[in-house]
Here is the input.
Amino acid sequence: GDVELFAERVFSRGLSAMAQCESIKFKLTQGLAVRRACYAVLRFVMESGAKGCEVSVAGKLRAQRAKTMKFREGYMLKTGNAVLEVVDTAVRHVYMRQGVLGVKVAITLPPEAVQQK
Here is the structure.
């Protein structure tokens, strides 16, 4: 029973949905406000050269009633085969005192990043 672990360096952290999802998760667990964390990630992704980005946080954000907050910028493909190649998506769960928040990040990659993928 040997366990082998393989880790690869991310080409561009700003264009990796998984890295950005983890970033939001970390910020929320540290106690940063949801809007502030999401807008910071959105700005960082767009400055990294992405064509578009969508960040969605769902759950009990402030009140007892659950909500979904969506933050969008640029282009976002939703349907068709191009979504599989062009859009990088990641989902993470954040365990807070009030309950669980769902964090979803989708990034529309620029053409040069799609070719490297």
About this structure: The radius of gyration is 15 Å. Strands lie at 52-59, 67-74, 87-95, 100-108.
